[in-house]
Structures are given as C-alpha cells and as structure tokens.
Design brief:
CATH topology of the largest domain: paralog of FGE (formylglycine-generating enzyme)
Radius of gyration: 41 Å
Number of helices: 17
CATH superfamily of the largest domain: paralog of FGE (formylglycine-generating enzyme)
Number of domains: 2
Amino acid sequence: MINLKSLKLPGRLPGLILCFSQMLILGVFAANALTGVNDNLLSAAESGNLKEASRQLAYGAHVNARNNDDVTPLHLAALSGHRSVAELLISKGAYVNASEKDGGTPLYFAAVMGHKDVAELLIAKGARVDTLFIAALLGHKDIEELLIAKSVDINAREKARIQKLQANQTAREEQNLWQKVQSSEDVRAVQAYLGKYPNGNHAAAVLDKLATIAAIAARREQQLWQQVQDGENAQAARAYLDKYPGGSHVAAAREKLAAIHKAEANSPKAETTIRDCPDCPELTIIPAGSYDMGETGSTHRVTLKSFALGKTEVTQGQWKAIMGSNPSNFTSCGDNCPVEQVSWNDAQAFIQKLNAKTGKQYRLPSEAEWEYACHAGGRQTYCGSDDLNSLAWHDGNSGNSTHPVAGKQANAFGLYDMSGNVWEWVEDSYHADYNGAPADGSVWQGDGANRVLRGGSWIVSPRVGRDARRNWYEPGSSYYNLGFRLARMLP
C-alpha cells in the first residue's frame, strides 16, 4: 500500500486524497450491499414471502430492481401467482408494464401461468392488455375471457387472430378426445365425443367405432350364452344374467338356471365332500359341466361328467400313512404340508396302494378335469381369483418353501392351492396343443415320454401360475416343487 504521508505533496493534498479513497471504498461497499438487498427482494417475490419482501424494501432494495434477464420483482410475483406480494410491490411503485428482455410484462407472466387473480390486480392497476397476452392464453380460458373483456382497443384484425386461436384450441381438444376414443372400448367414453362434437371431424369414424363395440359386445354375449347352453353350470347362468340383465337371452337363461337348480337338488353339489378312510384325502364332488379349455386363441370345448377331486394336494402325513416313508425335501414343514419330490411314477404307486386299501378307484385327474376344477365356473386369471396372493404360495410370498395346505383362499368349488404351493401331476401325456384332444374330458394318452403338470408352485413367478399355463416332465422326474392331488370315479 502506498504511504501517502511519505510523499512530499504540497499543502492539504495528501489529506484530500486519503478522504477521497475512503469515500470510494464506502461507495463500493454500499453498491454491493444494495445489490444484495435487490437480489433478496427478487428471491422473496418469487417465493411469495411477503414479510421478507417488506424487510428488503425497508433495507433499501429497489422495487424495480432487475436481474440479468431484466426481470423485476413484480414479474416474479406474477409468474409465481403471489398476489399479496404483487400488491405490496405495486404500492411501493413497481412498474406494472415493465418489460423483461423478451418483451414480456408481469401481466404476460400471470396470463401464461394461469394466475387469474394476479392478472385482475395488474389490469386494475393499469397493466396494458394487447393481443400478445391473449395469444399466450391457450389452456386458460377464464383469463382469456378476462383479457378480451378488458382489451378496449382490439381491432378487427386482432379479433380475427383471437378467433383463430380459439378455433385452433377447439380443434386440439377435439383431436385429443378422438385419440382417447380410438384406444377405448368404453361405450360411454365414445359417446362423449358425439355429445361434445356431434358434427366433428371424426363423427363418422366414431359412429363406426360404436357399431364395432356393439358387435363385439353382442359376440361376447353370445359366447357366454353358448357356455350356458352347453353346460349345466349354475354359476355360468348367473354370470350371464349379472352381466347382461337386459340381454337377448335373459328369459332362456332364467329357465336354464331354474332347470339346473332342480337337477342339483337330486345330485351331489360342489363342495360336498367325501372321505373313504381316516388316512384318505378329503374329496370334493365336482359337478358336471362344459367349458373352453386352454388359453384364448387355442381353446377347445370340453364337456365333463361329475367326478371327485382332492380338496387339497396330498399331504406328507397322508403319504406316510399309505407308503410308510416321506420323500419330501421340506419335512420340517410338517405333516399338513404337501408331499413333494415325488414323480408321476411315485404318484401311481401311491394310488395303487390306496385303491387296494379302500377298494375305490382313485387316480390322477385328467388335464381337462384339473383345468375345469381350477376355473370352477368362472374365468379368473388364477384358480379362483385375479388376486394371486389371496389364494397361492408363489415366489413372491413363499419364503422359498412349501406351506401347509388350505392356508389360502379356496376357489368356488372349495379347492385349495390349485394355484401355487406345488406343481400337480395329471394323468395325461404332454401334447403341444389341443388338436385331437378328447372332448369329454377324459385322459389324453400319448407316447408317455412326458407327463403334464399344472398350477405352478412356491418357486415360480405369478405369470407361470396362471390358470391355463402348463408344464411337463419325464414321468420319473422328482423335484422339491412337484406334488399331486387325487381324483376318484363316482358310482
């Protein structure tokens, strides 16, 4: 630093220079301080902090301070929709028609963001209204109407521009609704287009869409009615009446339901159970009926007689009572857990001994019987519900183990664990599709190289456990997720 006293300057000049230097330093400090309070005022206006904005104004912040984009505190208050801050700034002298570097005013900012209350305040305080603001209002019709009403000097050319903007907005709204209609099968959603745009650009196409939806609905109704006709299932008849209370076949469906109820009065009902010995599995009587077997697109019609099916999978305790041993991996799970690690051949050996003990005709169910019992007159994603967790142990909830049988929700026939816990062997040989499959639900034999399993297990994902999914292994294969349930002939 220069020592002014060491310089040989005449008279009072050194003192004057020192005084000037001190004033310069104070000026720079004051400028920096003012910049700070201005920045604080801009921040308070943007955040809507009324108390802080008042404080910064009291500290000397300039009410029309600008940032690098020439944006003022009033711009930011309008942009953020803070009416109380805007009122404060205007009362302190803020310019209501201040322009930022791109020409936007506080009113423009309020209009673009849809802050009608701020826009009303600015207009009341003298904000200029012109077409620029109106053009920015697409999507904010209430503000658009406000500004048009307040714009006293709109000429014919400007009115034409406004009308064009409004027409373009209407066209966009119509196009958006049309796009929704195209991807919808809901009659009410499609009719909403015609209600709003009866003479719209897509009215003819919407009418075609309604006709297509009606045709699809009629076809689906006919398919469900065909299921009612082909079977003796009361649940299918009730499903038709519930879904189509004003349908074409309501009277016939009611007659069918009455006939089914009359026949059921003299025959075993679903969930009627039998047990042939203390160690035998409990069986549920499955009523006769018809259904479409397989997944959509590869189905075939099957009509079955009544039969008995195990209420649960064969348990470890039941296996030990007949065979005297336990092949299961999860022995610690207990006697009430499904027996697993058994092959198709092992299941046949168990059945042979059980038949000898009881004199009955136990067997594995056919694949058609198994799937019919899974559906239980409905058509859910899994065996009895669309909610897998409510009725199945799978890889998402099993904890990598089997669980005691009947621990989850039963399906409509009173059968447990048809989805999950262990894969279940059926009698059929594996075929890649249903071409040539028996229509009466009997076993479909083949070369016997592979046998079918159904239902998924504790170790597979929900997708694999869907009602119509299939698996297959060689008949000698035994794994810790393979088990079975029994079927039995009725007298």
